[in-house]
Please model this.
Amino acid sequence: MVKQKQETANQPDNTAFTQQRLPAWQPIISAGIVIPGFLIIGLAFIGIGVALFVTSQSIQVLEMDYTGVDKTSPCNRCTDPNVKSCLCQMDFSIDTLFKGPVFFYYGLSNYYQNFRKYGVSIDYNQLFGDLSYFTSPSEKCSPYQYDNNNNPIVPCGAMANSMFSDTFKLFQIVNGTNKEVPLDGKGIAWWTDSNIKYRNPSVTPLQMAFNNTVKPLLWANPAYQLDPADANNNGFINQDFLVWMRRAALPNFRKLYRRITSGDYTQGLPAGNYTLQIAYNYPVLSFGGRKTVVFSNVSWMGGKNDFLGIAYLVIGSMCIIMSIVMLIVYAKFRFSEEE
Amino acid sequence: MSFFGLDCVKKKERELQRKLRANDREYNLSFKYATNAIKTSKYNLFTFLPLNLFEQFQRIANAYFLFLLVLQVIPQISSLSWFTTVVPLVLVLVVTAAKDATDDINRHRSDNQVNNRKVQVLIDGKLQSEKWMNVQVGDIIKLENNHFVTADLLLLSSSEPLNLVYIETAELDGETNLKVRQALPVTGDLEDDIAKLADFNGEVRCEPPNNRLDRFTGTLTYAGQKYALDNEKILLRGCTLRNTEWCFGLVLFGGPETKLMQNCGKSTFKRTSVDRLMNVLVLCIFGFLAFMCTILAIGNVFWELNEGSHFTVFLPRQNDNNAAFSAFLTFWSYVIILNTVVPISLYVSVEIIRLGNSFYIDWDRKMYYARSDTPAMARTTTLNEELGQIKYIFSDKTGTLTQNIMIFNKCSINGKTYGDVYDDTGQRLEITERTERVDFSFNPLADPRFVFHDHALVEAVKLENLEVHAFFRLLALCHTVMAEEKKEGELFYQAQSPDEGALVTAARNFGFVFRSRTPDSVTIVEEGEQRSYELLAILDFNNVRKRMSVIVRSPERKLSLYCKGADTIIYERLHQSCSKLMDVTTEHLNEFAGEGLRTLALAYKDLDEEYFSQWKERHHEASTALEDRESKLDQLYEEIEQDLLLLGATAIEDKLQDGVAHTIEQLSKADIKIWVLTGDKQETAENIGYSCNLLREEMNEVFVISGSSPEEVRQELRHARSSMKPDAADSVLLPERTLVKGVKVITDEEVNGEYGLVINGHSLAYALERSIEVEFLRTACMCKAVICCRVTPLQKAQVVELVKKYKQVVTLAIGDGANDVSMIKAAHIGVGISGQEGMQAVLSSDYSFAQFCFLQRLLLVHGRWSYLRMCKFLRYFFYKNFTFTFVHFWYAFFCGFSAQTVYDEWFITLYNLIYTALPVLGMSLFDQDVNDMWSFQHPQLYIPGQLNLFFSKKAFFTCALHSCYSSLMLFFIPYAAMHDTVRDDGKDVADYQSFALLTQTCLLFAVSIQLGLEMSYWTAVNTFFVLGSLAMYFAVTFTMYSNGMFLMLPSAFPFIGTARNSLNQPNVWLTILLTSILCVLPVVTYRFLLIQLCPTINDKVMFKVRQAKATLPPPPRRARIRRTSSRRSGYAFSHAQGYGDLVTSGRFLRRPAMFLSSGFAHTGRTTTGFSPMGRSAGYSPTGRPQNAKVPDVEGTSLQMYRTFTDSAL
Model:
């Protein structure tokens, strides 16, 4: 026995792996799978498409440009850079109930928040509340690292510096008087952003932490005074700041400004006339940008977007057409088996 | 090539002559000759890191990534963090360095082992044991039996008479038969007298170190006398001392200067055609990369002018809005971002795949030869896919196609054939293992290994049939075999050719035992009765005569001449009375020839005493003549070999290896052309050609080219071509394509009918001349089979080179002996038959196994799969990386050409390393379209590989287009689905991080599904890899976007929360589904239609397999091919001239005689007697059992010296 082992000492092992005999599933692209597969996918897609399209159609969207490029536009006078703290009003009416909850967005276009150098101009350590980065912000923030007097800027960087600064007030005109529509700005940012990613330094009062620093150049108020109404909505965890800091992927984007959920407007905006009061601060005309406000409600699939529904419908129908074509080809031309 | 190779190049000044003095170290040291230490390792502990890194960065891919790294640390350019490049680069460097280190450690180990061997050196008048590495030029060393020769030595003295030593040179030239070296008498007299040897102060002047194994010139000056030295007195390092108790030698060359080492390290690094294509493609990709970057840079100029210069309120520009400078920076930024089109992991993965597929070859039990316990071995791990593209096979004959075993198979005696077995009804039976054998036990001297099946012949012998007796008597007498009888009744024959051995052994078993010979007598035992015949003359064999005769006088004083030879020759010399017998025998000869047997005709005649003595006198005169001796002798021979009486004919089977004919048939079905290149004679080669089905009787014609001048050869070739293709014969216009380098490629020409070509060495020499080579190649390539005989090793290589030069094909050379080394090295792939004579062929080969028939498995299964896998891998790999990269390109148009990445940096880093590495590796290691049985069933599956169908520039281009489509989908569908929508809680979803996550998830799904489409063999491992990688992606993503990771390193993981916030949205998943499906559906449609409308051979077979549900019909029983008609002579006899002289001279008989006389005790002799092994005596029944396990050669084997040139990663 031992001798026999000696004689075949070099014989390779007989395992399924070494002999390449591993059991395997060997699918091939056969008519039996492909044609029904296409049919099923097609039907499923059409189903999804119809659902998406119908849902999308039911979503109401109201978008208004208030940049003021037009001479007739109410905000036109605010485009003059010499006018300080300019206020303008946009009037609009709603024919039917704008179902709630209604979301109030501001939109910017031709605005390259996704420009690489813009995007990297941020100091996450500073925004995490690390005080050592208050005195010496990251180099990435340059040229918004220090001001001309060499004081550190907090929060530093182009992204923070360019924070959207227009503010809005919405009034419903009821019997000729303006009735303010309550706007809810709580929880409009991601939970992870306000609770983990961004933190205020644990110094009370918050203002102390900002000693020897300066506010970003374009800002009207320092970070600790962003929301005079709510002390907990200041510093780096200010909801508007957080929304702004979630950088947009594309040059045209919308950001959530407020929600309309309370008071008489829990069910939505009733039909009627409204006026929007805009504190016009944010300059976009120099680079051809546009500012809009958007009112919208949502569904299970999010905001209004016809594309997905249409795409599903088109692809679904194409699948069905292809399955028919393939069936014809298969019936007519399939290769003979005798070879 | 290697950096350290410089050491050898920058030698001092070239040595013109070597001077040395024995036993004078001081004097010899002054010349600074190399010591006997060898070094094949490349690094030591300290040089490893710098040298290895230096070497690695010479590879273009690594250098490129280093360059990228440099770009990335420039802040203005850096579009990606440094770790995206560093992590993969470090991984690649570490893996390669580890591999290099293990290789080098092995080399160190073998160097040490060799260097530390002990040898007896004469120092200060005493024999001392020294390490090999301390041996110096001029030392005298003592070698003992079975020792390796330490260095190149001048033989001084030996234990054997006449100062002979026997050496085996297997490691040098692959020949296992023993060779003799003889010392000068003057040094031989020193014997083993230590005092005398210590006083020896001879001075040697000789040639400088060189690599010629067969030549040596020098002089020895000793005691005032000058002696010439030649190769016969030199023992080369690498040889082994055999049958010699001891010998003393003077070291002439040591270590790196020995001829063995001078012959090593030249092995060229072979690359596969896929490698070459890949290099071209990588260059194209570089070009394409530059092109894309240029477009984006130009885009950046426009953007800066139109938009960027205005968008300064929120993003001031440092460089004063200089658009041109910004474009320049953008160009480099995009070089960094788009670098993934030249993926660094490609090279590593390719190496891994090849390694894996090489292991499969090593592990294959169906390529394991149990009888010699030899598994197949992939000695090179970088050529696997090339195995699936072979178009030409160049094969050696002896030992490769044949076993080099001759078997006495049949005979025809006096008009009756023997050897076939018939059943009761007179039907001829197939001879198998189970057929009853003839029992030779009646004959105590019979060779037990001899097998014969036909009982009629024994009966005939026992019935004292006169002709049968004469027949076997002739076989027992007419030969030049030597007998050796160490023990009473245990006979060993040493034959010059296996044919002779087989014949004499046959006679022995049938009761005519050749027992011994002296220069003038032959003793045979005829049916138990010992008879001594007086040997009067041997009329030796040569190529022109094609016959040999002996003239003997029987104990009854009867003079006879016995002659055996080619039928055509013998027939011309027969007496008229035999004409009837001639006709019958001719029929038998044809039958034998038809079966591929080697035939000889036997004849005899009785001589008149008077006539003979007169002839003898003239013979003596002629053989001492000074002029024209040869022709005079020839005339005399011619005169006496007349009026012979035909006895019959013998048929010997040159035993083919198992399954050779079937293998050749399979390979030719796979459209592989097989050329046999052999050193053998035309008849033998042709014979084998027929018996292994290479040449067939049904062929329209077999051309024999045997011109003796260039013009003649050209004419013959022209003629051959014109008969194959009458219409285009005279066309001067070559059907050729011109390649880039101006080398012409000759395309195949169509011929109707099958033709064969046989060309001999002489003609081949002319045919390989520049002016005719194209003519030769065209003609040869039109033939189905080509046999070149009598070719030298160099010519073998030349033929291979010729085909490589003019045909854009992949060639494979297979052989077993040292004479095949040149062609093995020349061909794209060299295969060595292991377990046979010598190791040389195996050592220089890329693959080795024990049997020729394994070649079909190597090519049709392993090669095909490797090629398939490699091509699938490359296609898919390029697809996945291009798709990955192109998305950046589209995004550039929406981010102001700012080199913003679409994906998270971590995703970029890990995409090739973790998320997609294993699935594609799994596919390339396990995939098979159909299993091995079906691959054999349909050898045509091999053809796509030869035509490069699976991966070519076109396939690459298709990949790129496909990627382009996928990337468009991958960018624009998420774009359209997300740009103006929001989440279901009203929050914003089109932020950069969510978009990045969405796109990368889509990408990963798309490429994974695409992989699933490519994969045709889903093992559990594959499935696990694919699903596991997807799971891994989510696991890693969620981990990296988790709170914990962010809290540890806030600036490294800014994507915190993205996965949670984004992947809980239904529209995100709907987008992923849509994108993935949209990427895949067109591919499925296209493939389905392709399969239906123009299916490839693979599709058809796969369909058939599916139909058959993997139940393979049993392979058709292969009947032995029998043909009866024959137009050719079956004569073949591998025999060389001049042995007869030796037999009669007596010199040769000295050693065997010693064994016969019991007075000579052979004490101290450890081996058995003089028993040449290998070609000269390898006939079956008496020689060493074929394919026996080669004795374990201690590690001086060449592999240790073989220096590996780097694989260009």
